[in-house]
Structures are given as structure tokens and as C-alpha cells.
Specification:
Blueprint: H1 8-37, H2 41-46, H3 52-73, H4 85-88
Helix pairs in contact: 1-3
Length: 97
């Protein structure tokens, strides 16, 4: 068979890998958000060279991502439908998502 064979082994590897990536990604979101909490948007601009718009996008994206991580952890609920991709999409490059 040409291509990736679908087998118990490949399914296990893929589902395990994706789950592990989520755990790792949410842990990283929390670390970055913790760092961003100690940095002002002005610091991102003057010290790190971001524009005001980019600094605001970073702060907004990680506020949303940290909220999503808290939902993942079960430490927060969100009563309304929310698209968590809005600000994070701005950080992924043109046309990525």
C-alpha cells in the first residue's frame, strides 16, 4: 500500500502524540502568559521593538489562550460561545489559519 498505512500502531502513535502536544502547548501558554503578565504593552514596544498593534495582539491572544488553558484544566468555565482563534490567528502569519 502506498502512503501512510492505517493500523493500530499508527493510530495509537497519532492520537497519543496529539494529546501530548495539547498538554505541552497549554503548559507553554501558561508560562508565556505568566511572563506577559509582568510585561506591559509599552515594554513590548520600547524594550522588544513591537508596534503598539502587535503588542496588543500578543497580550490579547495570550489572555484568550490562557483562558482556554484554564477551560482545558477544568479550572474555568465559559458560559458563552467564544472563538478563541480570533487574536491567536494574528500571530500565525498571513493566511495560516
Amino acid at each position: 500500500m502506498a502512503g501512510i498505512e492505517v493500523s493500530r500502531e499508527t493510530i495509537n502513535r497519532r492520537v497519543g502524540s496529539v494529546a501530548a502536544q495539547l498538554f505541552s502547548s497549554f503548559a507553554e501558554v501558561k508560562k508565556i502568559k505568566s511572563w506577559l503578565d509582568g510585561v506591559t504593552a509599552g515594554d513590548l514596544e520600547t524594550v522588544h521593538g513591537f508596534t503598539a498593534e502587535d503588542a496588543a495582539a500578543i497580550k490579547s491572544a495570550y489572555a484568550d489562550l490562557a483562558e482556554l488553558a484554564a477551560v482545558w484544566d477544568g479550572t474555568r468555565t465559559v458560559p458563552l460561545v467564544k472563538d478563541y482563534r480570533t487574536f491567536a490567528r494574528r500571530l500565525t502569519g498571513v493566511g495560516q489559519y
